[in-house]
Amino acid sequence: MFNKHDLKRNEYMLTGKFKKKGYDWWWHSFSAINSETKEEKPFYIEFFACNPKLAKDEPTFGQTMEKNKPSYLMVNVGCWGELHMQLHRFFSLKNVKIHGKAPFSVEADDCYLDDTKTKGSVNVTEEEAKLHPEYMSDYGSISWDLKIEKNIAFNVGYGASGLFRKMKAFEMFWHAEGMKSYFEGEITLNGTKYIVSKDTCYGYSDKNWGSNFTSPWVWLSSNNIIDNTTSKQLHNSVFDIGGGRPKVYFVALNRKLLSAFYIEGKEYEFNFSKFWTGTKTKFSHDESGDYIIWNVTQKNKKNLVEVEIKCKKSDMLLINYESPDGYKRHNKLWNGGNGVGTVKIYDKKKKKLIHDLSVFNVGCEYGEYDK
Predict the structure, then answer these.
(1) Phi then psi for 98, rounded to 5 degrees?
(2) 239 in a domain, yes or no?
(3) Which residues contact 231 (CB under 8 A, 6 or more apart)?
(4) Is residue 77 a contact partner of residue 84, using CB atoms and an 8 Å limit?
(5) What span, in angstroms and rounded, lies between the C-alpha atoms of 349 and 351?
(6) N or C terminus of the chain: which is more exposed, having fewer CB within 10 Å?
(7) What is residue 159's predicted lDDT score, i.e. its pLDDT?
(8) Tens-digit pLDDT profile for the chain (371 aa)?
(9) Would you say 81 and 44 are in contact if contact means Cβ atoms under 8 Å apart?
(10) What's the CA gap between 125 and 137, in Å, rounded?
(11) What is the residue range of 185's domain?
């Protein structure tokens, strides 16, 4: 069973060796409605902390001539679609209030985040973006004030348990406290107000932490799901897929994914770390045309799932992160929020299709390190 909420896994994780070589981020994505035109637009909000032990009076950036190890809180907000952008605001971790234990909270100036709410603002001028490439930012303005309700969790199991967290066993950890989340409030993009409501936000919340990123990097998730058999929307359903090439104590586990499908109360999990389930995975991507296309096939002893997602390149970001060691290895990390596709789940023993689904507002990522 994966729908197990655990606020301890949402705590601030930059302890031990992760203080000097580690990152910790809380990610939130959702759709909002233009208050005037009623157009739908997907957004994201992320709080990203890096290398607190190296904190100075001002944020330290890795993408400069000095080649420093970075240290900061980065508030990273953005949107997808025809107008898409990522905006970065930085704070020295000396000037950030962090309550690390559950329930966590992070506060820097007017930017605030905990498990139930977030607010803040990020403004980057065109001149700032040009003068400071180390910000890795576009230019624009976004402000927000939102309530958060994390409804369905993807608890990946013992791989992110207390023991493994304490041992810092994985290079990149993952926990989705709210793979289906409700957001409510307002977000303003370049002066235009958008309304965020529980019924139409199709929200998602997770966190990652560790010492480095994975390559390849795969993420797919949606809770805007239609049952193709009945043509009805499924209001109590969500899926989440993540992973790529996890490392345990520098040993790479090649092409592994963790996935959870919660369909109207029924759980289907394909989790390589639960070896007794016999999970096997194949995945591929195609970026040769106007779309990024993901194909994922997974099976365990009971079920088989086939997932195909596509997202328009012109709607997506090449999202920017630098690693705690100061290197920027992901320079083509496709990131989107309005993918579409299909999910088919089969009963292997009965050789029967049990769920034929169309999915929308799919959060999606794919990237590999530069060769």
Answers:
(1) -125, 120
(2) yes
(3) none
(4) no
(5) 5
(6) C
(7) 86
(8) 999 999 999 999 999 999 999 999 999 999 999 999 999 999 999 999 999 999 999 999 999 988 899 999 999 999 999 999 999 999 999 999 999 999 999 999 999 999 999 999 999 999 999 999 999 999 999 999 999 999 999 999 988 999 889 999 999 999 999 999 999 999 999 999 999 999 999 999 999 999 999 999 999 999 999 999 999 999 999 999 999 988 887 778 888 999 999 999 999 999 988 889 999 999 999 999 999 999 999 999 999 999 999 999 999 999 999 999 999 999 999 999 999 999 999 999 999 999 999 999 999 999 999 86
(9) no
(10) 10
(11) 7-367
The C-alpha torsion from 102 through 106 and 111 to 115, rounded to 10°, is -10
Q: 328: Cβ–Cβ under 8 A, 6 or more apart, which residues?
A: 62, 63, 136, 320, 321, 322
Distance, in Å, from the CA atom of 301 to the CA atom of 299, rounded to the nearest integer, reads 7
What share of residues in the chain are helix, strand, coil (percent, to 5)?
10, 55, 35
Q: What is the rounded CA–CA span in Å between residue 362 and residue 170?
A: 27
If you count them, how many residues does the chain have? 371
Domain presence at residue 1: no
**Which residues, other chains included, contact 71 with Cβ-Cβ below 8 Å and sequence gap of 6+?**
50, 51, 52, 53, 54, 55, 56, 59, 60, 92, 93
| Cα within 13 Å of Cα(149), Cβ side | 11
Distance CA 350, CA 279 (A): 18
CA distance 91 to 71: 9
Residue 56 tokens, joined? 């100075």
Structure tokens at 273: 């770390």
Give the residue from 199, 46, 30, 236 showing the smallest Cα distance to 136: 46
CB 87 within 8 A of CB 77: yes
Query: Which H/E stretch holds residue 89?
Result: strand 85-91
Q: What is the CATH number of the domain that holds 241?
A: 2.40.370.10
Two structure tokens written together for 152: 């369905």
Does a structural domain hold residue 242? Answer: yes
Q: Is residue 2 assigned to a domain?
A: no
Domain count of the fold of the chain: 1
